[in-house]
Amino acid sequence: MPYITEQGRALPMDKSFSHNNKSFGATYLRIASSEEKAAEGISWETPVDPPVVRAPLEREKADSAAQAKQTAWLTLSPSDWRELPSNEMPADWGTWREAVKAECRRLEAAFEAAQSYEDFDAVKAEWPLSPAEQKDNERDI
Hints:
Blueprint: E1 3-5, E2 10-11, E3 17-19, E4 22-24, H1 28-31, H2 34-39, E5 42-44, H3 57-76, H4 91-113, H5 117-122, H6 131-140
């Protein structure tokens, strides 16, 4: 909390509180002047942003590569029936399936190649649309 006492106790906004054997109403911190608060031993402390804590880079890289594989699997699994020998897959579906696999490989390689968190954060997935999604988009236009 931004308002603190001389002893370092944080004071809640919009709630009554006691300090130095005095009671203060819920609106005191909002309506009292800076001089009045200083006279009571209350000051404003600018909050310090907590440090960003991240997992070790190697773990983030491994987790993201696993997530890319999972996304590829979930993306391809509804069309797996097209891979059965008794079915002949239309060319557009075969091309799309290969593009999904290629994007997964690209992501895995990019995550592996990242030498810093900046490199890692710059990796963006660009999953291709399935032929069905492409047709839906064409209808929407």
